[in-house]
Amino acid sequence: MSSSDERLEVIHHEGWSPDIKQVYVPAIRVHGGRTVYISGITAAPPYHDHPHVPEQFAAVPTGIEGQVDRLFRHLDLALEAAGCRRQDIVRMDRFFTHVAEDQDVVNAHQGAWLGGHVPTSTSVEVVRLATDPGLRLEIAVIAVAPE
């Protein structure tokens, strides 16, 4: 958490050490702002037809590197539209279809994208994502926009 932003307070408990490299923190206390809930974001176009039209997903990269890059660009759009910055994220729920193969790549990209900010997080592996069977990652976010 940025020390200049007093709205968000990282909470640690017994056992914490700054030497441990983590992509999440146990808790964040919010001291003001407006809560923003961002739906699950993937590498697919954020706006697509329902029922799904397979042609709308033809340009989605097949590998995790391309998918995670596109996913975080889509997340930037949602954050900006909501008046938030990356550092305003307090929670990330990550849904992997191939967690063993993809988690390290996603963690590295996420760490660089967040620039040192570390939100709370949960990661789970699922059989598939609802949007398209070729998608490997979906992330839902809760952020706190400044007043």
UniProtKB/TrEMBL annotation:
Give the InterPro entries listed for this entry. Answer: RutC-like_sf (IPR035959), YjgF/YER057c/UK114 (IPR006175)
> Gene3D superfamilies from the entry?
RutC-like
A Pfam family per the record? Ribonuc_L-PSP
| SUPFAM superfamilies on file | YjgF-like
- Give the superkingdom in one word: Bacteria
Q: Which GO terms describe its molecular function?
A: deaminase activity
Q: Name one GO cellular component term.
A: cytosol
Transmembrane intervals: none
What's this protein's family per the entry? Belongs to the RutC family.
Question: What name appears for this protein in its UniProt entry?
Answer: Deaminase
Q: Which organism is it from?
A: Actinotalea ferrariae CF5-4
